[in-house]
Amino acid sequence: MRLRQVEAADAGALFAYRSQPQVSRYQDWVPADTQEAAEFVARLSATEFATPGHWSQLALLLRDSGELVGDCGLHFLEPAGAQVAIGISLDPQHHAKGFATEALSAVLGYLFGQLERHRVFASVDPRNEASARLLRRLGFRQEAHFVQSYFFRGEWVDDLVFAMLRSEFKE
Ligand SMILES: CC(C)(COP(=O)(O)OP(=O)(O)OC[C@H]1O[C@@H](n2cnc3c(N)ncnc32)[C@H](O)[C@@H]1OP(=O)(O)O)[C@@H](O)C(=O)NCCC(=O)NCCS
Q: What is the predicted pLDDT for the residue at 57?
């Protein structure tokens, strides 16, 4: 795979998979149309990568064809961006091939290696089993299971928090 920041030309493909129920079911943000996806890409690519207090969005591409198969959001927390919240989405056509595992391994290597970040974490609805499996496969620790802590689409839902420290990261 090849990872780079999202750019304007990604909006159509990003909308095509992000709008599918299989991908949007547990996501806060779901684009209504390509225009909204384009605005999302424009907003995120306008900020320099790893700016504290901001999200950066990576495009996940197949190395050979250049096809956009997913994206990964990185929220560099204030004050210094030492802690990073992550989220990942993959086109359902490319689920269960190991692409998300490969992409997040590279992201972790970059965040903990080159950028020397302290902690990476993710928040997951427990019904989102593929996501929880992905994080466990990568070596994340489950730190919390909050019960009905998040009001999402008209109901109170549980929230799992997974985390990894730099000292826990294995290449
Ligand atoms: C979260 C998400 C990206 C995970 O995708 P995924 O396809 O399960 O993950 P991978 O691409 O790493 O594939 C791993 C699966 O493929 C299998 N696999 C096949 N070949 C593999 C390989 N070479 N390497 C690793 N896994 C491989 C694994 O066994 C695993 O299957 P399992 O979970 O049934 O054990 C995907 O479910 C998704 O886009 N969900 C919707 C968006 C979402 O809710 N995101 C969560 C926000 S945090």
A: 98
